[in-house]
Design goal:
The protein is an all-alpha fold. It has helices spanning 2-11, 33-51, 73-91, 100-121, 148-178, 192-195, 220-256, 269-281, 287-312, 318-327, 336-351, 354-357, 404-411, 416-425, 439-456, 462-486, 492-502, 507-519, 526-545, 551-560, 566-582; strands at 54-56, 62-64, 367-370, 382-384, 388-391. Among the domains are: 1-121, no CATH class; 314-529, no CATH class. Helices cover 58% and strands 3% of the residues. The chain has a 3-stranded mixed β-sheet. The protein is globular, with a radius of gyration of 24 Å. The chain starts with a helix and ends in a 6-residue tail after the last helix.
Length: 588
């Protein structure tokens, strides 16, 4: 991998590392291995913040500057050179000479660098969006800022959108030229997420939402001046940029996007798919191995689902039961507030149990809010984050309430929002790890959180338990479908039919999900592989420690180490098990 990393930089045109922003030269590096490593990753953290246009304010909170990142090809190649230079210096540090905490940091840092180099190898920046995520969606502010400087920087970012979009368009044109595009089959209707920002009246733009209720600490005259600046930025920069992007999407990108759907059909596609699997799962598992594992998990969960169906008293076939669940009005909210109310109640019931399962609880709270209108029609069911847990309330007849408990556990507590808050509050992690995310670890924890709903008593009816099993089946089926599409050449309809026949997901959700797997190869594999890793480690801990096993300590250890590759998680948790086993038994 180390030699390959250098060769790939040569293959994409990077032959010399940065001099001005390179890591600390070896000649002036501190003598000890630990100090050399810290200097290297601290330098990377500062560099990454600059490249991402982020800074820390006086309170230590991460804020955005007045600029959007440079995303042109030259800047991307420059970044790749920096990553290669960093990896070369990391390889020069004797791992055996590192302390145990720094060995973990070194393993995490290596994965970060190699993932970045892997994306550079395939010029991932030439395909900067997929059916799930896009570069144009989250640029508008969601709420008021706390001080005038934040408003001024936000206006600065609005003014940078023309340059930022032009760079993205140029990248996408390069991708079109070599056949490296999002599949056309997944692009229909996605232009609506751009068109939403093209408004005739600039004062109606969502970019102005933060100015609707500005804090009283900003003088009225300054508020008025900032609003005027913002309106002019929307009129002169934002709307014209979105209009230009929309024209490009409809007139150039969509018509010329590739008509194939498999990653293997891309340039160097098989290698690209395997690199994506490595990045998202942080394992060396092959597509073939993952496909076989998925088939076994589908068979196991299917048996559990049929048992749970019997508990409901339903008299028809399994297929008829799925139709019943997808069509009976009793299972669907009539208003968005009703759906979010069910989710909120699940979160509060989880609050009542959380202390039995975790010793360390985050101070930060989260809100439960709807998915933004620009994303909702083709977005997944929900997404958890540091400040909010999003529930998709678009097209309520496709959002069954029997799946809401599992969804809330995954996205909110003890899943992503809970996990993100604890991660942010960790003060012992190096800066480069404080906002780090690995899909295998993070999504594996989210799916494991759904499983915790059973011992917590969150699933109160057979229907809710079936909903949880359906969600687990959804993630197991991903192992089959993702590899089926990108390794074995499944058609889009074949993938839709497979997911439809194995889960209680609505048809709307199923189509959105399949398009997500098509346009984002490998990412969907992370959930089940991560969850299986955590559950296997828990089973090993229970077997080794017997009555001395404490699930609170087990969970605290997993979340306390921060985001790590699954290989590191495995090593660290086995070391924890051994250390717990070596402790003397408590007397009395």
């Amino acid at each position: 991998m180390r030699l390959q990393a250098w060769m790939l930089l040569a293959s994409i045109g990077v032959v010399t590392p940065l001099q001005a922003q390179a890591p600390v030269p070896a000649a002036v590096q501190p003598a000890s291995a630990d100090a050399r490593l810290r200097a290297l990753y601290d330098g990377y953290a500062a560099w990454d913040a600059r490249e991402s246009e982020q800074f820390e304010d006086a309170r230590g909170e991460t804020k955005s500057t007045a600029h959007l990142p440079r995303v042109d090809a030259q800047s991307q190649l420059r970044r790749a050179a920096y990553l290669q230079n960093s990896l070369t210096q990391l390889n020069a540090i004797d791992t055996e000479a590192l302390s145990e905490p720094e060995r973990v940091n070194a393993a995490v840092f290596r994965t970060v660098l190699e993932n970045g180099l892997g994306e550079a190898r395939f010029r991932q920046w030439e395909m900067p969006f997929n059916s799930d995520s896009s570069f144009w969606t989250y640029l508008d502010g969601r709420r008021a800022f706390s001080e005038a400087g934040e408003y001024q920087r936000y206006i600065g970012r609005m003014r940078e959108i023309p340059r930022y979009f032009d760079e993205q368009i140029e990248n996408m044109r390069a991708g079109l030229k070599r056949g490296f595009t999002v599949p056309r089959a997944t692009l229909g209707g996605r232009d609506a997420s751009i068109a939403l920002f093209v408004v005739d009246d600039p004062s109606k733009s969502s970019f102005l939402k933060p100015f609707a209720d500005m804090p009283a600490t900003i003088p009225a005259a300054q508020q008025q001046a900032l609003r005027a600046e913002a309106l002019e930025a929307v009129r002169g920069s934002v709307i014209p940029s979105y209009r230009k992007l929309l024209q490009f999407y409809r007139g150039e990108y969509f018509p010329r996007a590739r008509t194939t759907i498999a990653a293997r059909d891309l340039p160097n596609g098989d290698a690209y798919y395997r690199a994506n699997i490595r990045e998202y799962t942080t394992t060396d598992r092959t597509p073939e191995d993952i496909h076989d594992l998925g088939l076994k998990e589908v068979t196991r969960i299917d048996a559990e689902m049929r048992k749970t169906m019997a508990e409901t008293g339903f008299k028809g076939s399994f297929e008829q039961f799925l139709v019943f669940l997808k069509t009976d009005p009793q299972f669907y909210a009539k208003t968005p507030d009703e759906l979010m109310g069910v989710s909120s109640y699940v979160a509060k019931r989880t609050d009542g149990k959380i202390g039995e399962f975790f010793g360390l609880l985050p101070r930060r709270r989260f809100a439960i809010v709807p998915v933004p209108d620009a994303l909702a029609p083709f977005y997944t069911s929900g997404r958890g984050g540091l400040e909010s847990c999003q529930m998709n309330t678009y097209d309520l007849p496709t959002r069954p309430l029997y799946q809401t408990p599992a969804l809330t556990l995954h996205e909110c507590e003890p899943g992503h929002s809970f996990q993100a808050a604890l991660s942010q509050e960790q003060k012992t992690l190096p800066r480069f790890r404080q906002n780090l995310y690995f899909s295998g670890y993070g999504e594996g924890w989210g799916l494991y959180s759904e499983w915790l709903g059973y011992p917590m008593g969150i699933y109160r009816t057979p229907y809710e338990r079936f909903g949880a099993l359906s969600y687990e089946m959804w993630r197991a089926a991903r192992l089959v479908i993702d590899t089926g599409i990108h390794r074995y050449g499944w058609s889009r309809q074949q993938a839709i039919d497979y997911l439809s026949s194995h889960t209680a997901l609505s048809q709307h959700e199923i189509v959105n999900e399949i398009d997500r797997y098509i346009s984002w190869p490998g990412q969907a594999l992370a959930y089940k592989l991560g969850e299986l890793t955590i559950r296997r480690l828990r089973a090993e801990a229970e077997a080794e420690l017997g009555p001395r096993f404490d699930q609170r300590a087990f969970h605290d250890r997993i979340l306390g180490m921060g985001a790590v590759p699954l290989t590191v998680l495995d090593e660290q948790m086995r070391a924890w098990i051994a250390a717990e086993k070596a402790k003397p038994a408590k007397s009395g």
